[in-house]
């Protein structure tokens, strides 16, 4: 049996925790930023000015902050806006509508984020952890293991950076403003609970406090950490919960999503329905279609019975295979039959638009490729 995944970042063998990055204004609420500025001997309103540049104008270059005294721009920006994300690679496909960024953090960790432009919206997919401890065998990030949780600002900075890309007009055919954020990048968001919730509050607060997005346009995915789902329901947030189910039966889900050994399908779905009842938000059921593994007609029928009459929508995901993996995507006729059976059961179902296959679009693939390229042992392996 697969060992249970890690739920939190534990100290290493010598009792040390991973070093977190320098403090950034996105780690703090506005009063916290004001207190930091006054410690520098500057008037508190400077915090609001710098925050307006970062969240309102998507600017982090001190030279462009002309409303700040020239003598203090560098010091204020250096204190409030330290560099958190160092770009390693930025790739584009789908005629520029999909753009993937690979970042190196202060400690050398690699994380990914993706911008996806559509005619009516711009969505970014952001990471909440460097790596992931959930150990799902078909996921590149899960196989890499967990390095550490990201800070609130490291999470937020991904969205702010890609909001700036959208604002520059680089995504032709899409609006110039970021509208949607999905926590579906690297990591299990609810295993980094406090920082993810703080990041959500930054993303939805109006400038200068935050980025000013709609709560209803933010989606948080989880493999099913039941206590955290119930805690999220009590946060007075109206974000969408996306449950990565991937199998309707415990026998298979124990293998595909090892945390199922702790919280079974029935427990996870009960928590999801309670979340829907509390928030009024429809739950998104994420289901990766894996050839000859979870795509049998009887599993579609079982899933339909579990979800019928519930405030839920199934998002079927054609698997994006990772190099050397034994897992592959279901054939299209099998996928269509799965959709038909769910819809016949009265369950709203769509198939996710496949984006970014030619740029290692699935979570963890670009980081894994970078690790292979930078490892001198890979050339002789």
UniProtKB/TrEMBL annotation:
A single GO BP: rRNA base methylation
Pfam families for this protein: Radical_SAM (PF04055), RlmN_N (PF21016)
Basic and acidic residues composition-biased segments: 369-381
Main subcellular localisation: cytoplasm
Gene Ontology terms for molecular function: 4 iron, 4 sulfur cluster binding; metal ion binding; rRNA (adenine(2503)-C2-)-methyltransferase activity; rRNA binding; tRNA (adenine(37)-C2)-methyltransferase activity; tRNA binding
Cofactor(s) annotated in UniProt: [4Fe-4S] cluster
Catalytic residues, chain numbering: 112 (proton acceptor), 363 (s-methylcysteine intermediate)
Keyword Magnesium in annotation: no
Protein location: Cytoplasm
Region span, Disordered: 1-22, 356-381
InterPro entries, A to Z: Aldolase_TIM, Methyltransferase_A, RlmN_N, RNA_MTrfase_RlmN, rRNA_lsu_MTrfase_RlmN/Cfr, rSAM, rSAM_sf
Catalytic activity line of the entry: adenosine(37) in tRNA + 2 reduced [2Fe-2S]-[ferredoxin] + 2 S-adenosyl-L-methionine = 2-methyladenosine(37) in tRNA + 5'-deoxyadenosine + L-methionine + 2 oxidized [2Fe-2S]-[ferredoxin] + S-adenosyl-L-homocysteine; adenosine(2503) in 23S rRNA + 2 reduced [2Fe-2S]-[ferredoxin] + 2 S-adenosyl-L-methionine = 2-methyladenosine(2503) in 23S rRNA + 5'-deoxyadenosine + L-methionine + 2 oxidized [2Fe-2S]-[ferredoxin] + S-adenosyl-L-homocysteine
UniProt entry tagged with the keyword S-adenosyl-L-methionine: yes
Occurrences of domain Radical SAM core (ranges): 118-358
Classification via CDD domains: Radical_SAM
SUPFAM superfamilies for this protein: Radical SAM enzymes
Cofactor note: Binds 1 [4Fe-4S] cluster. The cluster is coordinated with 3 cysteines and an exchangeable S-adenosyl-L-methionine.
Residues that hold S-adenosyl-L-methionine according to the record: 187-188, 221, 244-246, 320
UniProt EC number: 2.1.1.192
GO CC annotations on file: cytoplasm
Binding-site residues for [4Fe-4S] cluster, renumbered to this chain: 132, 136, 139
Similarity comment: Belongs to the radical SAM superfamily. RlmN family.
Miscellaneous comment in the UniProt entry for this protein: Reaction proceeds by a ping-pong mechanism involving intermediate methylation of a conserved cysteine residue.
Protein purpose: Specifically methylates position 2 of adenine 2503 in 23S rRNA and position 2 of adenine 37 in tRNAs.
Protein name as annotated: Probable dual-specificity RNA methyltransferase RlmN
């Amino acid at each position: 049996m697969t060992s249970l995944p890690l739920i939190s970042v534990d100290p290493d063998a010598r009792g040390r925790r991973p070093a977190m990055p320098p403090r950034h204004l996105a780690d703090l609420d506005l009063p916290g930023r004001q207190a930091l500025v006054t410690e520098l001997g500057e008037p508190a309103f400077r915090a609001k000015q710098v925050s307006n540049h970062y969240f309102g104008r998507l600017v982090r270059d001190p030279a462009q902050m002309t409303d700040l005294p020239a003598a203090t721009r560098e010091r204020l920006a250096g204190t409030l806006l330290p560099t958190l994300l160092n770009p390693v690679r930025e790739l584009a496909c789908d005629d520029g509508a999909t753009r993937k960024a690979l970042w190196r953090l202060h400690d050398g960790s690699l994380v990914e984020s993706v911008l996806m432009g559509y005619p009516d919206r711009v969505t970014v997919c952001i990471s909440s952890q460097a790596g992931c401890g959930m150990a799902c065998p078909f996921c590149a990030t899960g196989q890499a293991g967990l390095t550490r949780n990201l800070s609130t600002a490291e999470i937020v900075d991904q969205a702010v950076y890609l909001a700036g890309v959208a604002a520059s007009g680089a995504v032709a055919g899409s609006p110039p403003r970021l509208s949607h954020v999905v926590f579906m990048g690297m990591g299990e968001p609810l295993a980094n609970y406090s920082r993810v919730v703080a990041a959500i509050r930054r993303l939805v607060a109006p400038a200068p406090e935050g980025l000013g997005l709609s709560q209803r346009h933010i989606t948080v995915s989880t493999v099913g950490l039941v206590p955290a789902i119930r805690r999220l329901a009590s946060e007075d947030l109206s974000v969408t919960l996306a449950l990565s189910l991937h199998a309707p039966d415990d026998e298979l889900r124990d293998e595909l999503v090892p945390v199922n050994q702790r919280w079974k399908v029935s427990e996870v779905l009960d928590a999801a329905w309670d979340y829907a009842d509390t928030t009024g938000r429809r739950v998104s059921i994420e289901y990766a279609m894996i050839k000859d593994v979870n795509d049998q007609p009887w599993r579609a029928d079982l899933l339909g019975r579990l979800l019928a009459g519930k405030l839920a929508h199934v998002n079927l995901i054609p698997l994006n295979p990772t190099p050397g993996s034994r897992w592959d995507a279901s054939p299209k006729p099998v996928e269509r039959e799965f959709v038909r059976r769910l819809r016949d059961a009265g369950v709203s179902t769509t198939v996710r638009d496949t984006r970014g296959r030619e740029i290692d679009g699935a979570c963890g693939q670009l980081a894994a490729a970078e690790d292979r390229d930078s490892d001198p042992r890979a050339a002789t392996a």
